[in-house]
């Protein structure tokens, strides 16, 4: 029986990746680096979950012939870049740069009205989540979700299922009682590894991914209702 809906954030709740890309490039400029990620490169980098992890991967790629002799200095650079990027992203979101994807709020409202629990399972930071949902839902956004799994409390990134296992434990539910919502192959792998039926809503950064094993792949959530989810889930 369907009892809860578990949502990824970036790319799923909102089409945020374009703003993340802009924020990374802003951080590079602020630090005086000659790095600049284009859309195609960022699409490839999204195969690596986590902003810090992407930055470290890029550092290694542009310094392929160098050994990380002073690993602390590299880690400090990555930390500074990530802080700059996060601050830029948060400010832009609070100013209305992104909004929730079509159908998201309607499905959440319908689910709550029908007694289903809501949860978040993401690899992004608490700051990013709060900026987006405070703007979209309101200052009481946290009250809408029984569990929020994020980079601070489930640090092993997707496709590892850690964040989903944590959320399921906090919900006190079996995977068979829930449906997850994702937009990427890594997210789908994580959800499937946790035993969750998963609905995929791709975006321009993930449309080329392999979504084999998904419960359904839909353009957005405008045509997804709780009765339809119950029907898909029951099958």
Tally of contiguous helical segments: 9
Q: What are the secondary-structure elements, in order, as H or E?
A: EHHHHHEHEHEHEEH
User: What overall form do the CA principal axes indicate?
Assistant: globular
Average pLDDT level: 94
The biggest sheet, with number of strands, parallel, antiparallel or mixed sense and barrel status, is: 6 strands, parallel
Radius of gyration: 18 Å
Instruction: Provide the domain count.
Output: 2
Count all strands and give the number.
6
Query: What is the correct CATH architecture of the largest domain?
Result: 3-Layer(aba) Sandwich
Span between N and C termini?
Answer: 11 Å
- Output the CATH topology of the largest domain: Rossmann fold
Structure description:
With 235 residues, this protein is α/β, with parallel strands linked by helices. The protein has 2 domains: 148 residues, Rossmann fold; 78 residues, DNA polymerase, domain 1 (Orthogonal Bundle). The chain is built from 9 helices and 6 strands. It has a 6-stranded parallel sheet with strand order 3-2-1-4-5-6, with helices on both faces. Helix 1 crosses helix 4 and helix 4 packs parallel to helix 6. It is globular, with a radius of gyration of 18 Å.
